[in-house]
Amino acid sequence: MARDRGQPDEDGGDGRTVMESARDHLRLIAGGLLVGLPLLWTMEVWDDGAVLPAGKLLVLLAIAFAVVVGFNALAGFRRERSWRELLVDSVQALGLSVIVAAGALAVLGRLDPTLGLPTLIGRIAIETIPVAFGASLAATVMAAPDENESGGLGPDAATVGSLGRLLVAGAGALYFALNIAPTDEVRILAAEATEIQLLVAVLVSLATSLAIVFHAEFRGGRSDPSGDGPLDGPIGETIAAYAVSLIISLVLLWSFGSTDGTGPRTVLAQVVMLGIVASFGAAAGRLLVGSGSAGAGGGGSSGQREGTPA
Predict the structure, then answer these.
(1) Of residues 90, 283, 93, 256, the one with CA closest to residue 179
(2) Burial 255-273 (b: 16+ CB within 10 A, else e)
(3) For the whole model, what pTM was predicted?
(4) Cα separation, 249 vs 276, whole angstroms
(5) How would you class 84 by CB atoms within 10 Å of its CB: exposed for 0-12, middle for 13-18, buried for 19 or more?
(6) What is the DSSP string of 11-63?
(7) What ranges in 76-116 are assigned the alpha helix state H?
(8) Separation between Cα atoms, residue 72 and residue 209, nearest integer Å
(9) CB neighbours of 156 closer than 8 A, spacing ≥ 6?
(10) S-S: 241 plus which of 36, 95, 183, 282, CB 3.0-4.6 Å?
């Protein structure tokens, strides 16, 4: 039987050996690389890291840190932590993400010293964001089954609450949209889209998100409300998650300079078009949260309760 995390060892230790700590850090690195590799290989991201103002980079890094804190709070590597321990773990995860991003860029030959210190710092900073996102996901989807209290891939949807689900929706939207936001395709599609096409894009985003989470019966999907609040039902949660996706899209477009010198209509069109991708990410994030209740029953069921005969 596996020893509970956080419980004393037989020799009187605090329950965390050197091997356990090394394993946790290995998960952070693996998750960061698995999620961050596409953007580590993207030229637009390298260039944006060199030209983005420091203030915008700090905003993006603050969002990334919030994602790390949120995922650690929902399904961290160590249970029953204080807020101080949670913040320390999150700072460590972000710091490790900086090292991983810098190491990967160095291996790819993208950290030429002749580029200058500001360019190197900006390039590392912007690549840290997807790596940090992957590191935070490692706590949810890479833990061994005996380390997960719910027996599934992640925390229970009802347990994390509506705000927790919106947090992971924002995290999923951030990662998916971050792959697309720096590209010219968003601006091209927005410039060519008519009002009817934008309306269709909104409706398709909402309908697809609703179907993925509540009707497609993916692992982690749900068919019933997770609570009694206005954001716990399928319609309310879908609309709220889509709103979060649009906000994330707007922040990313602003950060990459896509909204500079453009009118409200153009900005709205860009947000809606990028929101298509972001809404898919938001749905994927909520599936990860719901998977904690899908370990045995799948879909929206809570599975077999512990101690109940099969």
Answers:
(1) 256
(2) bbebbeebeeeebbbbbbb
(3) 0.69
(4) 10
(5) exposed
(6) TS--S--HHHHHHHHHHHHHHHHHHHHHHHT-HHHHHHHHHS-HHHHHHHHHH
(7) 83-107
(8) 25
(9) 150, 289, 290, 292, 293, 302
(10) 282
- Ordered mean pLDDT values, 10 residues apiece, the chain (310 residues): 46 61 80 82 84 89 86 62 80 90 90 90 91 77 52 50 82 87 89 93 92 71 58 85 95 91 94 94 80 41 41
How open is the CA angle 229-231-232, to the nearest 5 degrees? 65
Token pair listed for 152: 């599934």
- CB burial of 159-181 (b: ≥16 within 10 Å; e: otherwise) equals ebbbebbbbbbbbbbbbbbbbbb
Q: Residue 134 in contact with residue 36, Cβ under 8 Å?
A: yes
Residue with tokens 């998916």: 176
pLDDT recorded at residue 150: 46
pLDDT at residue number 225:
54
Determine contact, residues 126/57, Cβ cutoff 8 Å.
yes
So what's the pLDDT on residue 147? 53
Percentages helix, strand, coil for the chain (3-state, rounded to 5) are 70, 0, 30
Separation in Å, CA 81 to CA 66, 67, 78: 17, 17, 7
pLDDT of residue 90: 86
Q: Are 166 and 234 in contact (CB under 8 A)?
A: no
Both structure tokens of 105: 């860029």
